[in-house]
Design a protein that fits this description.
With 332 residues, the protein is α/β, with parallel strands linked by helices. The protein is built from 13 helices and 14 strands. It has a seven-stranded parallel β-sheet with strand order 3-2-1-4-5-7-11, with helices on both faces. Strand 2, helix 2 and strand 3 form a beta-alpha-beta unit. One of its GO terms (molecular function) is aldehyde dehydrogenase (NAD+) activity.
Amino acid sequence: MTKTILVIGATGGVGGAVARVMAARGWTVRGLARDVAAAQRRWSGPAIAWVEGDAMKPADVVAAAAGVSAIFHGANPPGYKNWAGVAMPMLDSTIAAAKANGARIVFPGTVYNYGPDALPLVAETAPQKPVTRKGRIRVAMEARLAQVASEGVPVIILRAGDFFGPSVGNSWFGQGIVKPRMPVKAITYPGKPDIGHAFAYLPDLAETFAQLIERADELPVFAPFHFRGHFFEHGIAIAEAVRSVIGKPEMKIGRFPWWAIYAGAPFVETFREILEMRYLWKERLELDNGELVAFLGSEPHTPTPMAIRTALEGLGCLTKETAETRLAPAFR
């Protein structure tokens, strides 16, 4: 194994977290970007080698992946837009690059694959019968990866819940619970308060990806895993943790304004896509990480107060000075 990895989507949440962890572990990291100068301006982290290219163009990805042992496919259409038009073509570019360079594909999976029939505790082998269009797209993507694995291209899939972390403003945590780039003045929660909900703290998820990649030779050619992450038995507990971390335990937790999403859906594509996934906020879905723990020994897990604090600081919602004056000792 050459310790070189191409990260597609390095300026995004999960791709950026993986790029940082792999660089910290001594890997040479390449990032694919259509505009290298813009990517460099957006990037904050260890030095990585930016390569100009478009994930929609197989030749660009093949060239960028020359000599790598792994390709992390963290490309996602922003704002849920045009998944049907770009998700599979971008994956096909990665597959072409993996075949051409003898590289392993590393793929961040989602809970979208699963419909209500698979709930509440979902194993890696659970039937994938999605009830949404995006879910069907994700199932088709994984089926394509299983197919190329049967042809000899090794694949790692790690499925996880909703992301949160220090650089994920475009997430349910950074939009539906708090607002980025401002002190926390209001907290909302999108789901039913007493229904469990799965969140994935990106530094933990990235560390898990890194451990799997570095032990990839011990894995079968097609290796799907589940990342349990921070599962809150009462989903609203993540919002309660936010107000504890900011030192305002009495702050009211409001309801997410779903009415506004419904009202805007006829005119805003992102709103329509958000509504399609609302069922995940109404029903319990917990990922069973038994296979992951059996392989790695344990799942990387940052204590909730520390994870929430780091996420808020990274999103510009909590300064270190504020934290030192407001936080209870247990949260410092």
